[in-house]
Design goal:
about 400 residues, mainly alpha, two-stranded antiparallel sheet, 16 helices
């Protein structure tokens, strides 16, 4: 064990924050999983805890393996991964709206292990790496909008178009993060405004088409539009029921909470172990626990900015911001939903919620951040820029 710990490199504060969040997650996951056991009738609390532990164990294996990869390798890997991701998204969407009573247009089933996997989570990470690579490539050039359509915006819009019908919130987050990264990467603001206008126009056309011909393609337009409507005008719906129970949990938690495992609302609140786990945390650990948890996510944000600022390459800076900021953004959205500052989105709490393979994608992003923070894996930009991205051998190996 000591030998393994000695091989860990990169930003120690990020390692510590991630480890603390993961360790803390066992308490609320074990407590809130009783809803799945006694209300839904799914498994046992110990079984869910063991599954959560196994997923986190494998996730930390991903972090360890990825943080040893030289940073410049991710440039070439993103070029290879983008077509694969797009094919996975097409395959997932082609499954239809439902399978076995569940929404199948988000998931594919991994063979052998039988776990559900959301390609949109992988697509979000891969796309941010791809965009960071492109922005690095044009950093010293004067780019016209027409020149960036094919290499940049076509992959972005294809990804979003394939995710949007089944998962509006994820598509919106990805689009927002891409725009933010392009802004930070120096992409002309006037072009970004045009992209925003195009995105809004496309969304309007998509909604009108889905409403006019609901059977034309699988979509969940009615679901997420009803969530937005319910947020603006609360009604007696399932989404409103979830929010009301979440607010009751937060209100009854008080300052110091009821204590670990003593939540009452976990027995009534759907998705208490995933989307609404923050409400259960506040009920059991109070406002103190809720603010401490928020502090750790903000500390993670601070260290992400520190790592980006300390990177010796433009690609490293953009890469860290591209894959790191969405983690904190997702956490803040999850908390905002629990206190009704945001419509219900279905976004879980990174590293804390009981999740499937989505937690692995968070670990993948963290591993990439740690790779950049590990100076042994980051080479000078002038060297990595010499890689011929049309040569498959150089894409895979880089120049060592």
């Amino acid at each position: 064990m000591l030998k393994l710990l000695n091989t860990i490199s990169g930003d120690k504060a990020i390692w510590a924050v991630v480890a603390l969040l993961a360790l803390f997650s066992f308490l609320p996951v074990y407590s809130s999983s009783s809803n799945l056991v006694y209300v839904v009738g799914n498994g046992t609390t110990m079984g869910h805890l063991v599954k959560h532990a196994l997923l986190l164990f494998l996730g930390f294996g991903i972090i360890y393996g990825v943080h040893k990869i030289p940073t410049h390798f991710f440039k070439g890997l993103s070029l290879i991964a983008m077509p694969v991701v797009l094919m996975l998204l097409v395959l997932t969407l082609a499954q239809g709206t439902s399978s076995g009573g569940t929404n199948a247009s988000r998931w594919i089933r991994l063979p052998l292990v039988g776990l559900g996997f959301q390609p949109s989570n992988l697509a979000a990470v891969v796309l941010m790496i791809y965009v960071a690579r492109y922005l690095t490539k044009i950093k010293d050039k004067v780019i016209t909008f027409s020149e960036s359509i094919l290499p940049l915006w076509i992959p972005v819009f294809l990804t979003i178009v394939l995710i949007l019908p089944a998962n509006f919130s994820t598509a919106a987050i990805i689009f927002s993060m891409v725009l933010m990264l392009c802004f930070l990467g120096g992409y002309p603001i006037k072009y970004l405004l045009g992209i925003i206008g195009t995105g809004v126009a496309f969304l309007a056309i998509f909604i009108l088409t889905a409403k006019a011909a609901p059977d034309l393609f699988p979509n969940r337009v009615d679901t997420w539009m009803s969530r937005i409507d319910n947020f603006a005008n609360p009604e007696d719906t399932e989404a409103d029921y979830q929010i009301e129970k979440a607010k009751i949990a937060i209100a009854t938690g008080g300052v110091f909470g009821k204590g670990a495992g003593k939540s009452v609302q976990k027995n009534f609140l759907p998705q208490s172990s995933s989307d609404f786990i923050y409400a259960i945390i506040v009920e059991e650990y109070g406002l103190v626990g809720g603010f401490v948890l928020m502090f750790f996510y903000l500390l993670l944000l601070f260290r992400i900015i520190v790592v980006a600022n300390g990177s010796t390459t433009i690609f490293g800076k953009l890469l860290v911001l591209g894959v790191g900021l969405p983690i904190v953004f997702q956490a803040l959205i999850n908390m905002a939903v629990a206190v009704e500052l945001f419509p219900v989105t279905g976004q879980n709490l990174p590293l804390v919620s009981m999740g499937g393979t989505s937690s692995w994608m968070i670990c993948l992003a963290i591993g990439i951040i740690l790779s950049v923070s590990n100076k042994d894996t980051e080479i000078e930009e002038s060297v990595s820029d010499d890689i011929d991205e049309t040569n498959p051998l150089e894409i895979l190996s880089g120049q060592l």
